[in-house]
Amino acid sequence: MPALFAPVLAALDVPTEASSDFDLNPALRMTGRSLRAAGVLVPLIERRGALHLILTKRASHLKHHPGQIAFPGGKQEDSDADVIAAALREAEEEIGLQRDNVEVLGVLPSHETVTGFEMTPVLGRVRADFAPKPEAGEVDEVFEVPLAHVADPAQYIAQSRRWRGVERTYYTVPYGPYYIWGATARVLRGLADRMDV
To answer: Per-residue pLDDT tens for 41-66?
Structure first.
């Protein structure tokens, strides 16, 4: 394993609780609802001596999170052995990242989304370069962000907007033209906090 991954592997050993879209909005928390299992891949690739995170911009017509920046991934299907298998399958379908090109490093604590998913982020090392193939029905764009940017807690801003008639606060971590916010930013903020200890 390249030495660049040492801080990421150390972060996996830092004990933390699950996160939620309601972390900054505890009064809005919904209780007693049934959550659907989902797995997302947090794919890291080495570029020019630094780690980069691969993200997607979701298609604008999708029912859940249209046009948002997201990890490749989705809900766990009956054919998936677990959420890790779901994350790897979805990454292959959405961006053409073959599962045998991913070394699973571990999982971060689950994240509850406002849309009713219990999302498990799966950290993975992309072993070799690949040419992304965005699935036209789901993904508008595949891009990379330096891990150093999203691993820095100082890059995060808490912002708010009205959602379903209520003011909701959420994390953002903008990068160039990309507005990374919501569940993606919350999971990355959790990773940043773990790497900052």
So the answer is: 999 999 999 999 999 998 877 666 66
Q: What is the chain's mean pLDDT, rounded?
A: 93
Q: What is the DSSP string of 103-143?
A: EEEEEPPPEE-TTSEEEEEEEEEE-S-------TTTEEEEE
Whether the Cβ atoms of residue 171 and residue 186 lie closer than 8 Å to each other: yes
Q: What is the DSSP letter of 94?
A: H
Q: What's the first-to-final CA gap in the chain, in angstroms?
A: 22
Of the candidates 174, 173, 176, 179, the one whose C-alpha atom is nearest the C-alpha of residue 193 is 173
Please give the C-alpha separations between residue 107 and each of 27, 39, 181, in angstroms, as whole numbers.
28, 10, 21
Question: 3-class DSSP state for residue 167?
Answer: strand
The whole-angstrom distance between residue 1's C-alpha and the CA centroid of its chain comes to 22
Coil/strand/helix, residue 64? coil
CATH number of 3-13+34-147: 3.90.79.10
Rounded to two decimals, what is the model's pTM?
0.94
